[in-house]
């Protein structure tokens, strides 16, 4: 479905819009991940150990320096179930998470 005709897009820099949306999403996701970690009372080192990542990677995700890839994002969703499930609720995520073993704190 097309909501905007080509004539309406003239003068819009698509690359700039994509970049701005990516930055917005990256910053929003970073704050959600950090907030969820704090709700669970975990340190970055503990999260890194649980997800088999480095502490510097967790720091970069939480500061918005790096956007996590899909598998890392799924791991965060699995670890922080309630805090992130509303943001990423879709059949693919539910099916994938149902197959994962329980992560204990």
Automatic annotation (TrEMBL):
Could you tell me the superkingdom of the organism this chain comes from?
Bacteria
Give a yes or no for keyword DNA-binding in this entry: yes
Give start and end of each HTH cro/C1-type domain: 33-87
- InterPro entries registered for this protein in UniProt: Cro/C1-type_HTH, Lambda_DNA-bd_dom_sf
TM spans, by residue? none
Name the SUPFAM superfamilies on file: lambda repressor-like DNA-binding domains
Q: What residue range is the signal peptide?
A: none
Which UniProt keywords are given for this protein, alphabetically ordered? DNA-binding
Q: Which PANTHER family match?
A: DNA-BIDING PHAGE PROTEIN (PTHR46558:SF4), TRACRIPTIONAL REGULATORY PROTEIN-RELATED-RELATED (PTHR46558)
Protein name per Swiss-Prot or TrEMBL: Helix-turn-helix transcriptional regulator
Q: What species is this protein from?
A: Fructobacillus broussonetiae
């Amino acid at each position: 479905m097309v909501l905007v005709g080509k004539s309406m897009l003239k003068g819009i820099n698509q690359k700039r819009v994509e970049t701005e949306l990516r930055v917005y999403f990256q910053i929003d996701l970073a704050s959600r991940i950090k907030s969820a970690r704090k709700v669970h009372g975990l340190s970055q080192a503990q999260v890194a150990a649980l997800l088999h990542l480095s502490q510097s990677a967790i720091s970069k995700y939480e500061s918005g320096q790096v956007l996590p890839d899909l598998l890392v994002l799924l791991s965060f969703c699995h670890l922080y179930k309630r805090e992130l499930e509303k943001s990423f609720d879709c059949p693919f995520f539910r099916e994938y998470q149902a197959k994962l073993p329980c992560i204990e704190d």
